[in-house]
Structure formats: C-alpha cells, structure tokens
Amino acid sequence: MPPSGGKEVRMIDKLNEYAHLVIEVGLNVQKGQEVVINSPVDCAFFARLCARAAYDVGARRVHMQWRDDEISREYWLKAEDTVFDEVLPWDVERNLTLAKKNAAFLNISASNPENLKGVDPKRLERASKANNQANKEYYTMLMNSDFPWCVASIPIPSWAMKVFPGVPEEEAMDKLWNAIFDAVRIENCGGAVDRWRKHCAFLDEKSKKLNELNFKSLHYTNSIGTDLTIELPEGHVWGAGSEFSKTGIEFVANMPTEEVFTAPKRDGVNGKVVATKPLVIDGNIVKDFYMIFKDGKIVKAHAEEGEEYLLNAIKEDENACMLGEVALVQYDSPISNSGILFYNTLFDENASCHLAFGAAYPSCLKGGTELSEEELLAKGINCSTQHCDFMVGSKDLSIIGTTHDGKNIPVFVDGNFAL
Amino acid sequence: MPPSGGKEVRMIDKLNEYAHLVIEVGLNVQKGQEVVINSPVDCAFFARLCARAAYDVGARRVHMQWRDDEISREYWLKAEDTVFDEVLPWDVERNLTLAKKNAAFLNISASNPENLKGVDPKRLERASKANNQANKEYYTMLMNSDFPWCVASIPIPSWAMKVFPGVPEEEAMDKLWNAIFDAVRIENCGGAVDRWRKHCAFLDEKSKKLNELNFKSLHYTNSIGTDLTIELPEGHVWGAGSEFSKTGIEFVANMPTEEVFTAPKRDGVNGKVVATKPLVIDGNIVKDFYMIFKDGKIVKAHAEEGEEYLLNAIKEDENACMLGEVALVQYDSPISNSGILFYNTLFDENASCHLAFGAAYPSCLKGGTELSEEELLAKGINCSTQHCDFMVGSKDLSIIGTTHDGKNIPVFVDGNFAL
User: What gap in Å lies between CA B267 and CA B380, rounded to an integer?
Assistant: First the structure.
C-alpha cells in the first residue's frame, strides 16, 4: 500500500515515474509488443500503473500473472503431497508462447523473506526440479536474453517489517519505500530516465576497462576467511547496466543494478569463500555460510542457519554446484552505504560483490548466445536450471587480477574498485 | 476490504463462517478434489480464507485465477484492436482440464457495475464470441453440472458506492457487507450451514409442488405491460437450492439462491415482457427495457439505456434470442424486502421472478444431462453460449399455470406464490 496522508500527491507522482521507468527503461516496451506483468496481488496498485504505462507506449496487450504469499504458503504446507512433482502445462505453454512472441516480462519482486519457513524442504526441492525441467526452454531463452525482462520491487508490509524490525508497520513501509526510491534513482523532481541513462553509461565504462584487461584469473581474499581463485574463460565479456535482447531491444534486467559481471571458467574455481550477507532461498533465510571449491565444484557448503535450503539449491541439477557468475560491486556504493540488509537479492546483490552458483549468462562469452548448451559447457561456461546469487563483498575485500602475461593488478582494494 | 475498527473480531468470525459456507455447502469440496478460485485481487483477503477452508476439508490443490477491474478496463480501452478476436489457449486448456478432473469452481463475483462504460461494444461482442466458441466444451460441462460450481460475492468499494450512492465509501461498504451477510444467512452466532440446509429443503418443497402440477404453460401479466405466455416442454423439471454434479456431489451453484426454476419450451414463448430491474451486461448498465417474443424468438428488444449491450447479448449466437430459464422468486422474499438494487445478477435475480435468454440447464429436463445438443434442441430445450438472466417480477405480477387437462391454476398472485 502506498503511504497515505499529506504525502499522497507527491507519492503518486513518484509511483508513476517509477512505473514509467520500469516500462520504458527496464523493459523498453515497443509499440505492438506484448507485456507480461508478474505481481503479488498486494502490489496491484503499482501493477496497474505499470500496465497503464505499458499501454501508454503502445503495448499490444498486457498479460497479468498474479501471485500471493499467503495462498502460496497454504499450498506448500497443505496441498496433497503428490502435487509437488507436477507442473501445470498451461503455465509452461503461456510463458514459452509469450517468450517466443518476444513479449517483455516484468517481475514485481516483493515477498515475505520467511514466507515458507517450516515448509518441508523436500517439497521445495521436488517442485523446483519439476518446474525447472518443464520450463527449461523458457529459462534458457531468459538467460540468453532472447526477450527483454526486468525485475523491480516495491515494499509489502511483511517484507518491510523484516528489513526494519521493531518499528511500526507504517514506518517500516515508509522506510522501505524511501530505500527503494533511492536505489532506483527516483527523486522528487522527475528525471529518473536521464539519471538511469547516465548510470548505465558509468557502469559501461567499468566493464570496458575490465574487458580491455582480459584477466586470466581473479584472486579474492579478506580477513573473514575468503581465499578464492576464479579463472575466467577465454573470450569472457564483462557486462553491466543495460543489455540487448535478440531482437535488438535495449533493456535493464535488474532495477536497481550496480554490478559489473561476467562468467567464470566453470572448472577453474578453487578455495574458500565466506558469504557476507544472508540469502533468501525458497522463502527461507540462509545465514552465516561458506563454500569450498575444488576444480570448480562446491565440495563443501555449510550454513549456521537454513543449511538444508542451501544444499538443496546446490544440488538442483548436476551443474548447480559450479559457479555461473562473478559480479563486482563497490563496498562504497549507494545501496551498500544505506547500511540496509534487504533480504531480497535484487537489492542485496547490488550492495556487494557477489557470485552465483548455477547458470552463467551466455552473453558473458563472445558469441555465447549463439551456442548450444554443449558448446557453452565445452568453453567453460556453466549451464544449469539453477542461478543463485550470494554476497561475498566486505569492507576489506581484496581482488587481484592476473593477466595472461602474468601481471598482477589490484582490481579491488579495501572493498572498492582500484582500477 | 473488511470493515475495520471495533467490529474487527466479529467480522473475521463472520468472514470465516462465510468462507466455510461457500466451500462446504456451495462447492461441497471433497477430500482429494482440486479447487479453482476465481477472484478479484481486491478480494484477496476473502479468497485466502476460502483457499484455507478448502485445504481444511482436504482439497488436493487450490488453483487461483485472479482478475482486476482496473487492468481489465485498460485492456478493453487500450489493447491493440486485433486481440479481441483472440483467445489465449492456455486459459482454455486450464479450465477444460480442471473441469474434466471434476474440480470445484468458485467465482467470487465483485465488480464495478459500470466498469466497461465507454468501451466499444464491438470489442465486447467480438471477444465474447471468440471466448464462447473456444470454451464451448467447458461451458457445456458447466451448464450440465458436470462439476460442482458456485458463485458468491463480497463487496468492493466501486460496487458498494453504486448500490449506495451519496454515502461515504466506508458506510457504503458496511451497508453492502450487511446486505450480503443477510442474503447468505450469516448471522452473529454461527449456524449458517444449518440454516442453508433448511432453506434448501424449503425451496425443494416448492419445486416438488410445481413438478407435481406439471404445467403445460405459464401466463405472466402485470400492470406495466407484461403479457407473456411461456410453454413448458414435456418432461420439464423444476429445480431449486442444491443440485448434484455428475459425480454425485451435492452443491449450491448460487449463494444466495431463492429461486425455483425450470426450462421453457424454446419455441413456445409469445408476448411481451417488461423488465423490472436494470441489468449489468459486460460492465455496462442496461435499463428500462422490454422484449417481444414470437414463437420463442425475441423479435424486438428496446432499452432506454444500454440498448446496444442488450442487442449484442441477444445476438451472441443463433439461439441466444430464445429463452433458456424460467425462475420464480416471491416479491415478498428476504432480498427483495431489503429494497436494495444490487446491480449484480446474483442478488437481483434472487429478489425477483426472472427469465434468461440463451442456454437452458439440461438438468431441467428429465434425463437432459445425458442428451446431445441436437437431442436437447429437438425436445425444445435451448442451447447457446449465452445465458443472461433478467428480472421481471413486480408487486402485482400474476402467473396463471395451465395444466395439460386445461385447468387454470394461479401460481403467483400479487407477486407472491399462490400455490
């Protein structure tokens, strides 16, 4: 619910600007294009603004896909056990058909981080496997950026109360609204689209520099136990900010985005990495965890809280235990400086250097989007139905890049870019 | 939104009782059965209670189908013109697959009665035709009671403000909540399930009497111009209250329900009938209308307001211009006595004798659910993708029944049952 009272007029202006930002910069909806909006029912007031913004720029049709935390929780707890191996064929057909029509997919991400606490992890694991298998073609298209997609967020009370515990609901909601508006560059005076264009250009600079350096490997160390070497494959590409769909539409997949990212060499990761923020997996919090890699594979993972959800995620398929993404975010960056732990990867990953186990983005390899799964794997690019980001940035993080001619160049010093 | 403040505790009890009533008496959900809940996003708090109630009685899985007035309106006004001849195949597949699995379908009916005011009627007509054609098998199963289904309502502000104009939104919502609770027999002390069982038994008595009399025809007259003769087909059956699905599950298709109904002989309707309440068709109000019938067909229809929506509905297919339902409701009945015009057929038809143009319920003919469309038509039972109820009851309505041996028996005198 948007804050009410005296702020209402300004709030509706900000919400409208946000909706237009998401539709025009995030998805970059084209005249005649179909649009899919996936939204919690509690975010209907914002989903409506997005739908309207999409029609304003000439969307052919907006398809709504609604969901609800509370009814989901009932489902996971109380549905007959046999349903968790099933997939509803009409859901698969809808996503795939619309993806093939080059629809633009918006996901409004807003959930209680502990919504599925107490749910049998086996149910989540079985459903996830069934779902990923049935939707493989769609997910491959998504990872390949075949169509434009965007994830953006607005607050809901259950989430806001977790981020700002101990304050009244209304205050928590106000604080989370403000934090999100800050993160997505909505101010009081319009102009967010321009600010986003500038921001994307800034991130682009960083990725250009990293592409020129063409590192052979990165070595991560800090004082809490991280000591990890990540080799980068030949032909890797650093990306950032916006990207282009197969049909040539420039879009921004995450709002906010602060990262510069590429794909690691899947069998070239060795050492230990200690997570620096909790993570929400399948509606459960995973906390205080580390992983040990040998020749690319996670050979040990331990979490003080929620370990079973982490282990489930790592074994989702045979390649889920290998890295698919290496992303650099300054410790001294806007979202990080807010000091807020969002319990939502969209924000937390943009406040911290992070890695992801599971699939790589094929666009992180020169010509990668034209390759088959077998060809990608042969070139060291991981393929999986999993893609799970986790945060590893810290105030004292050091990353040393080693070039192909053996030079060691500091990439990160004390948590920030040193290039 | 449920009324808040001091009434909250009692309100949540009433809402829970209502949800259980709808699930246990309306749908009569069985252990292991799938359930579909079709709900506006603004009614999520009640849909959640219904989902929970369904799981409480052992539903295998609850499928949510959400919709939203505001986004619908955007769609009808702004989507590309070509979409209105299209049907989304995944929607068709979902309904048909679940119907064939004998799922129970709940529709939470709550809409702004004028939601589609200003929409091009041609769009509504085209979409309705495309939709009815694609979903024909599903609609036939529904009219045949192959699976249990139920329509029930809760207030939303746009609707409440139309029913109670000129009062503040909160008061209008309170009034509509109270009117609906009265209509569905939710009091302050529990016991609604028992009250419903008794009510269904009472309606059953009336239908038994009418079945014994086995009228050849009914003659409607009143002082505002109605003078209509409706022949009843051989083997017609009056139904009321609950009915049985093909798999033997007793369910109540409408909550509230006050009617006793049967099918007319489709080519045996002659004369003029004047509507006594407005009607909402496709999100538009149709007001002050009459129809003239000749040998079953509507040969003239005129409305002072919204005539085009009425005419569209009547010509939806070749049989939409013939009657499919004759229903008797006392003028002196609870909903009618409330004096409220609900602008929602679920309530208004249960406050008044009504007719429907379009499809008949095959269960209104002995053995009718086993017959094909051709066989039903041959026996005088109308088949159509349309089924539109309209109200004809008035304080001075007279209905004389004529038996097969020529006796004239008053069925209604001064708007009420005379049997």
Answer: 7
Q: Encode A71-102: b = buried (16+ Cβ within 10 Å), e = exposed.
A: bbbbbbebbbeebbeeebebbbbbbbebbeeb
Angle at A387 between CA A384 and CA A388, to 5 degrees: 140
Using DSSP, state whether A34 is helix, strand or coil. strand
Q: Give pLDDT, residue A334.
A: 84
Between chains, do B71 and A51 touch, taking CB under 8 Å as contact?
A: yes
* pLDDT at residue B332 tops 90: no
- The Cβ of residue B212 has, within 10 Å, a number of other Cβ atoms equal to 9
One-letter amino acid for residue B11 of the chain: M
Tell me which residue of A368, A98, A128 sits closest to B88, measured CA to CA: A98
From chain A, pick out residues whose CB is under 8 angstroms from the CB of B55: 74, 78-79
Contacts of A44 in chain B (CB under 8 A): 41-42, 68, 70
Helical residues (DSSP H) of B166-277, grouped into ranges: 169-183, 192-213
> Facing residues of A227 across strands?
A221, A272
Distance from CA of B45 to the nearest CA of A (A): 9
Rounded Cα gap, residues A306 and A57, in angstroms: 44
**CB-CB under 8 Å, A79 with B61:** yes
Binding-site residues on chain B for chain A (CB distance < 8 A): 32, 41-42, 44, 47-48, 51-52, 55, 59-64, 66-68, 70-71, 74-75, 78-80, 82-83, 88-91, 93-94, 97
CA dihedral for A264, A267, A268, A272, sign (positive or negative):
positive
The two three-digit tokens of residue A344, written as one number: 């939502």
Pick from A272-286, A376-390, B182-196, B401-415: least confident: B182-196
Give A270's strand partners: A229
Confidence of residue A1 (pLDDT cuts 50, 70, 90): very low
CA-only gyration radius of chain A, Å = 21
The pTM of this model reads 0.94
What gap in Å lies between CA B275 and CA B306, rounded to an integer? 14
pLDDT digits (tens, 9 = 90+) for B270-295: 999 999 999 999 999 999 999 999 99
Cis peptide before B256 (omega within 30 of 0): yes
Q: Which of B66, B101, B123 should be substituted to probe chain A, the one whose Cβ sees the most A Cβ atoms within 10 Å?
A: B66
Residue B291's SS3 state is: strand
pLDDT 10s digits, A75-95: 999 999 999 999 999 999 999
Q: List phi, psi (to 5°) of B9.
A: -60, -50
- Taking the C-alpha atoms of residue B46 and residue B19, their distance in angstroms, rounded to an integer, is 7
| Predicted pLDDT of residue A10 | 83
The three-point CA angle A200-A204-A206 to 5° equals: 125
Q: pLDDT digit string (tens) for A249-289?
A: 999 999 999 999 999 999 999 999 999 999 999 999 999 99
Which ipTM value was assigned to this complex? 0.93
Count of pairs with CB atoms under 8 A, one residue in A, one in B: 91
